[in-house]
Amino acid sequence: MYRDDFVRRIHSPGGDRRGSRSMHLDIPLLVILAVICLTGLFVLYSASGQSLYLVKRQAVFMLFGFIAMITVAQFPVRFWERWAIVFYIGGLLALVAVMFYGVGAKGAQRWLDLGVTRVQPSELMKVAVPMMVSSFLGKRYIPPSFQHIFISLVLILLPVLLIVDQPDLGTAILVFTSGFFVLFLAGLGKRYLLSTFLLVMAAIPTLWVFVMRDYQKQRVLTLLSPEDDKLGAGWNIIQSTTAIGSGGLAGKGWMQGTQSQLNFLPESHTDFIIAVLAEEFGLIGVLALCIAYFLFVGRCMLIALNSQSQFGRLIAGSLSLTFFIYIFVNMSMVSGILPVVGVPLPLISYGGTSVVALFLGFGILMAISTEPKRIRMDL
Amino acid sequence: MIHDSAFTDPARERRIFAGRLFVTAVGITVLAIVIIVRYVDLQINRHQNFATHSDNNRVHVRPAAPSRGLIYDRNGELLADNRPTYNLTIVRERSKSLDELLGTIGDLIEISDDDIKRFTKRLKRRKPFQQTPLKFNLTEQERGILAVNGFRLNGAEITARLTRFYPNRELFAHVVGYVGRINERETQNIDSIAYSGTDSIGKIGIEKYYENQLLGKVGSEHVETNARGRVMRILDSVGATPGDSLTMHLDSRLQRVAYEAFEGERGALVAIDVKTGGILSLVSAPSYDPNLFVSGISQKNYDALINSSDRPMFDRAIRGQYPPGSTIKPLFGLIGLHNNTITMDYTINDPGYFFMEGIERPWRDHNSKRGGHGRGVDLAEAIIESCDVYFYKMSVKTGIDLLSSYSEMFGLGSVTGIDLPGERPGIMPSRVWKQGARQEAWFNGDTINVSIGQGFMLTTPLQLAVMSARIASKGKMVTPQLVQSVNGVPIVPEAMAADIEIKPEYWDYVHKAMRDVVHSPRGTAKGISKGLDYEIAGKTGTAQVISIDAEEEYDSSKIDKRNWDHALFVAFAPVDDPQIAIGLIVENGEHGSSAAAPIARQVIDAYMKSRPVQTTQVMVAAPGAEDDVTKVAQ
Fold first, then answer.
1. What number of other Cβ atoms are within 10 A of residue B261's Cβ?
2. Do the domain assignments include residue B185?
3. A292-301, B499-508, B590-599: which has the minimum mean pLDDT?
4. Which of A10, A83, A182, B330 is least buried, going by the fewest C-beta atoms within 10 A?
């Protein structure tokens, strides 16, 4: 496949792709991204109870993200490969800083107050960790040896443990997953996969007893039988499934969702925003968004496949998979397949750091996709 | 897995990667199908169920508002109360035509243009189906008229709710603060569930600082409504938990005396219980009526408050930063004695001015007629008569480093940690401070200016009161605290640092000198000693508002009143066993002795009179009086 790609580009130099290439922009990615972002702002306006204030703030975050993405794309892939360790260490230090100087709400300390704005270092680690592991494995033979696997796991677990301590189990699991995807894509042996699986199975009871807080356990129990606790923790799931289900095929119309507008739906502008979309735009809306996401992830995986370097392949692959996992986890938890873990729906849910972190990742993907092709010896 | 090839094999690596990517692509597709199946199931197969659940079965859960915690003064007098008020609210979706409805209501009761204007503003910000208030505080008559005509007022409803009320009006505005409607910015930072039954939040003062305690816990009501959304019956409910009630150290009698003493003046006063650190009174004058803010202040009233040159909204007691002037002298004297840079026998000659080596311009003695205080001025005399030249000399001997570091122990230059939001730290200048703030080295001239509480130095009235209390208690780390107990459980603030160790004879010396400021015939505050049946220790101060050239005489008759000097006074009493300490300022009051000291006398008088028993008598009082003992002696 890469060979065809190479030949095609040699024979049609320039053309309409030249401009975007020199700007280091991947046009298909950009178009889908813009569509999803605009959809997000529309849904947010309705979900936040017509709050222009929130929509404006979110738009500013997105604009900031776009600029960050385009900036990131201008640097060569090798630059990011070399600098991954710096971002990683910076991120670790920020997490340690959160431990001591962090601010937070509702019992968790997740934020660093920078005066101008607050940032959530754990969100940034969702990009920094796969970058670090990709950069480490990118220089080594794959499939990775036992020693390299061990070092990679240490690199992943250091930030993960710091995040568990905040406590933010949801983000910790996602950071772990993003790092683990790199290992998986690098061809982690079947034996290791099996033992990881067994370890995770063994870890679940341990987590349950030692790490998970009562409210987290409650969420899992709630998933199993929401009807037991109609007013308390089951409320979210009953209300969100009612919102989704009552939307039907075509939905109730923009800003007409009674569930969300009547304040039945909790966190309607952040984690549960997909329920607003499902209620107001129906299954058609949900499918349209899924298709956009699917195209987006597909495009990202294609970029990964065509990448020139090992680092590029691994980081692009991991970022596309992680992106998909966010979508999957969010849409599952809102529709009652998974427990409520506090994962936002990418680009649709309100939230600054998460948007910016996603865009940083897309910037790296664009840098990879527009990397100049090297002439290879075997051609 | 052992690597069997020593050479990189890019083609093999690509193959491995492509293989893995293919596996994940399959995985993604499977998971995507799972989600889509779930949504199809919910939205197509079970749509009817959910649609019924959402539309026809109008059983709703609605929040039950908790009543906000009450705030009492130390004698159990209510400072913040909740009163039932009846508001007229509109749900736009349930009225056929909004204009028509407003017209009908306007014919029945009086609706002002201001009401309509604020209603339209709220209407833009509300959620669909949300009740939007049109008119607050309906009278009984208005309620009657509306109830009778209810049948033609679909969409309008009279809602009863508890509204905050501050019975003392402007008296406690700067301490207790007020609640107001939750604005959009606040919406972002609060737990939307906890506030689902509440539309107001503490904006400033105690109401803000103790918001979490005062709020209470929201309850819920399962209600069945008819097709128009009107509640038919309540199925079951979980009661709301009222917020915690707060008991303050404040004494409203003292507060009233202090506030009234400021009649017509601008200024601030803080009175502290020396034994506990409890704030007995905290006044910033002029003040305003906090009730105006509770259900939204009208633009006219707001403009009047904001544009007033007296700045009634400005809390001078904790945010006003003024040069402390001579009130700082007892403290500096104490620092000099403790560090042996002066002794109790050390005297100076005061010709009325002071020359610093290498500087041509002299420093004048502001508190003497030309000619100075003469020969043999010792520390006591320098405090009693407020001799500037003594402090110019001692400050140069002592140096800014000692003055600054010890002053910080007495609470200057940083926030005192009182339980109020927005406290300002003032400035206790030091070499480090000047390097940071001005990028300049420290000069001896700066030290001389600081020695009489001028120059870069700034303090809040609260800091002056804390300083005074720490001097009064001979170095106890008195920490200011407004709230005495939450739901009857006492709050004891932790001292921020260890007590200050200074030799007893130095404390006694300075206490005696401060006593003589009031009780000696030469004291600058002798005017307030008349008719005292106990002893007050104090120190007057005057803070320059505009700088006067050293050669020129300050002459108030030539200067606009807004540029007159600020008058300050710090005090504690009774001298033999200090109970109350005070810091106060009268803006443009000119002289600490004539403008500020009498206010302190009135407040201390009121305090001494209201105390149930003298502490010395308490020690031998009957066991029945024990409660009083703990109150007074703690």
1. 21
2. yes
3. B590-599
4. A10
User: Dihedral of CA B105/B107/B111/B116: which sign?
Assistant: positive
Interface test with B, best of A193, A195, A241, A246 (most B CBs within 10 A): A246
Mean pLDDT, rounded, of chain A: 83
Location of structure tokens 């009182």 = B418
Number of domains in chain B: 2
Mean pLDDT across the stretch B476-499? 88
Q: Which of A55, A185, A376 to mutate to test the interface with B (most CBs of B within 10 A)?
A: A185
The residues facing B1 across adjacent strands are none
Q: Which residue of A has its CA nearest to B42?
A: A245
Give contacts of B61 with chain A, Cβ < 8 Å.
231, 235, 264
pLDDT at site A14: 40
Determine which helix (DSSP H) or strand (DSSP E) holds B270, and give its type and residue range.
strand B267-273
Considering the domain architecture, whether residues B327 and B424 belong to the same structural domain is answered as yes
**Which chain B residue lies closest to A286 (C-alpha atoms)?**
B39
Domain CATH code at residue B355: 3.40.710.10
What's the mean pLDDT in B225-236? 62
Q: Tell me, yes or no, whether B322 and B185 share the same domain.
A: no
In a domain, B371, yes or no: yes
Which of B22, B23, B54, B126 to probe by mutation at the A interface, max A CB count within 10 Å?
B54
Instruction: State whether B515 and B406 are in the same domain.
Output: yes
Q: Which amino acid is at B130?
A: Q
HSE on the CB side for B573, CA within 13 Å?
A: 30
- Flag if B16 and A143 touch (Cβ within 8 Å): yes
Show the tokens assigned to A302: 């294609």
Confidence band (pLDDT; 50, 70, 90) for B492?
Answer: confident
On whether residue B269 sits in a domain, the answer given is no
CB contact under 8 A, A378 and B11: yes
Chain A residue numbers touching B11 (CB-CB < 8 A): 378
My answer on whether B321 and B452 are in the same domain is yes
**Tokens 């707001």 -> residue:** B302
Q: Provide the 8-state DSSP code for B7.
A: S
Does the structure show a pLDDT above 60 at B609?
A: yes
Domain boundary among B225, B248, B271: B248
Write out chain B residues lying below 8 Å of A305, CB-based: 17-18, 21
Count the neighbouring beta carbons within 10 Å of the beta carbon of residue B385. Answer: 21
Give the pLDDT band (50/70/90) at residue A13.
Answer: very low
Q: Rg for chain A (alpha carbons), in Å? A: 21
Residue of chain B minimizing CA distance to A377: B10
Domain housing B193:
61-248
Question: How big is the A-B interface in CB pairs under 8 Å?
Answer: 161
| pLDDT per position as a tens digit, A49-78 | 777 888 999 999 999 999 999 999 999 999
Structural domain spans, chain A = 26-74+242-370, 80-212
How many angstroms separate the CA atoms of B90 and B120, rounded? Answer: 11
Domain membership flag for residue B46:
no
User: In this structure, are B207 and B342 located in the same domain?
Assistant: no
Q: Which residues of B are catalytic?
A: 326
User: Quick check: B46 contacting A, CB < 8 Å?
Assistant: yes
